[in-house]
Automatic annotation (TrEMBL):
Binds 2 Zn(2+) ions per subunit. Catalyzes the transfer of a methyl group from 5-methyltetrahydrofolate to homocysteine resulting in methionine formation. It catalyses: 5-methyltetrahydropteroyltri-L-glutamate + L-homocysteine = tetrahydropteroyltri-L-glutamate + L-methionine. It comes from Stenotrophomonas humi. This is 5-methyltetrahydropteroyltriglutamate--homocysteine methyltransferase. Residues 5-305 form the Cobalamin-independent methionine synthase MetE N-terminal domain.
Amino acid sequence: MTTVTNLGFPRIGARRELKHALEGYWRGESDAAQLQASAAALRARHWQLQRDAGVDVPPSNDFSLYDHVLDTAVLFDAIPQRYRQLAERAPLDAYFAMARGLQRDDVDLHALEMTKWFDTNYHYLVPELQRDQVFTLRGDKPQSEYREARALGIDTRPVLLGPVSLLLLSKTTDGSNPLDLLDNLLPAYAQLLGELKQLGASWVQLDEPVLVQDLDDATRAAFVRAYAVLADVPRPDILLATYFGALDDNQSLAATLPVEGLHVDLVRAPEQLDAVLRALPASRVLSLGLVNGRNIWRAPLDNALILARYALGHRGADKLWLAPSCSLLHCPVDLTLEKKLDGELRSWLAFSRQKLQELRTLADALDGDTNAEPALAQAREAIESRRRSPRVHNATVKGRLAALAAADAVRATPHAQRQLLQAQALRLPAFPTTTIGSFPQTQEVREARARHKSGKLTADDYDTFLAAQTEHCVRVQEQIGLDVLVHGEFERNDMVEYFGEQLDGFAFTGNGWVQSYGSRCVKPPVIYGDVSRPAPMTVRWSQYAQSLTDKPMKGMLTGPVTVLQWSFVRDDQSRADTCRQIALALRDEVCDLEAAGIRAIQIDEPALREGLPLRRAEWQPYLDWAVDAFRISASGVADATQIHTHMCYAQFNDIIEAVAALDADVISIETSRSRMELLDAFARFDYPNQVGPGVYDIHSPRVPDTAEMVELLRKASAVLPAQKLWVNPDCGLKTRGWEETRAALEAMVDAARTLRSERAAA
């Protein structure tokens, strides 16, 4: 019988149970024992759900209270010195301090850096290592969770981030090569694998996703070294898991490492199957990633079955496993909760539970079970229904896309000339201060939105409420002394969902939650058809806010690449075409904002780097259409209108030329966690436009003081000309409270004034 397995399951729960448990703990409303009990209940529920869906071997240790990379670093005692004292007396507090920072009593700790997990919108915490780092096994999380499942009668496969990927995803604080630490790390892995074997684990999954990236000879040698060492220790059998792309030139390496099984992604790279079958020894298990772990469309089961039968023809059923392409971390839990989604659209979708059922159908069909045929027929019918549906296609949108010309993606004059006109129009001081857009979404704001959505608050009363919140936000910014204001975005639920709700071609789920980081969950829109803008989306509130003040008011939009990346995107046309459709809709909005008197317009693109393909050879085609889409959205305005953009948690070295090609007048970026290190890319490139390096980490509850921000701004001034610098937080402030927000922004404005005084005195 063909084995159905899974690489990882969503942690947050179908109704965001983990989010609520975490935030209750952080607020002091529950204790550690209650938090851990909630986590254990979720794990038990998810293991049983997977078994009920037809999974033979579910994973364990795929659960995390915050982030699996952070878990792995802590597991091997890679805890930076600044957290050590706290870790010895309060391990859970230290864990969350590494994730979020901590400011309490005499403790003031910065969080670890955070960046994107490959080309996804999941953020991981970057481990900090140093030369001669000592690794030891700390705690027993993988062992404990394996025992939990066994106590429930469920045999699982523990999941671990592999040693080479762990090192390559880390940073060293002293400039040394992380791979130099491999021999220090491997004994801790060997000890852990031995303990798992003693507990009865027959298999363990080691995730090595870097194997689908470009690797140099030193990294390939590190893989050979690592798995040669692990081959000679008592341990369970190893499934080496790769995903997010093709092995390509790393195929021979992956196929010859001394492990007992290999997982490959046949959704992103179905073309690799034949070569993998030839390269992988017949004694090894081959795990086929046949359903998409990163999107929510029904799988084309007939096509997947062709691949599975081809693989079966080259090895026995006992050496063939069926699995999702990657962990289901990136998908919602269960489609059956979507009671309000219309039936036709719902028939096109599959969430995590349904994807596992699809795999069971494939396995049954592969084993000759005729009971699989109705499910195969249903999938066939749904896919054909989607292909033919008139709601998917819009001839007007396709015609406008076809009519795009090169001139539609170019501002009328170069930035140097535009900057002079913008300076005259905006009349800003040196080191102008602003924020990224959103202000605190308090419980009162969320409750009002929910009451309006449920019909308990009339549209007029809701508008009155939003107007009062907006005016309060404007007055607070004036009192603080910010130079360029924002309206606060109180009418918005999410920076992508809000726009998708007002664009044709989008649909929305009620419980389609996925984890972005920690307790931060998002509900990505579903782009099912051609995209257009029926009416203005943001003009009303931006115009109202501008009427309340004489200071410049920024209009706030989410850029086309980010709307694309942070949605579940249709897979029946190119992503480039879908992105340009979104860009045209946003272009209309930008022009309407300008016509309404808004002279600064921010088009956020935090996902630009996230969308970069994992192979360098594929970068330029992506960057070409991504930059083109942004410029289409931004290039319809006059020279005196200042276009801003915002990016966060990105490695700018890889894309600095593309960032410059966006030709935004001002870019604000996240830099506080890295202590301005990310500015080095802008300095080396001699970035021509203006930059706002973040001086306040809004993902942490700690409030930096003026001196800390002055220090960061001095670092920025040391690498970029002062006349290019803006002053702003790292990101939007919606997750923060008003008290801390006000305190931090007052310190930020004071820091800018200090820099202005220093510049005047120089």
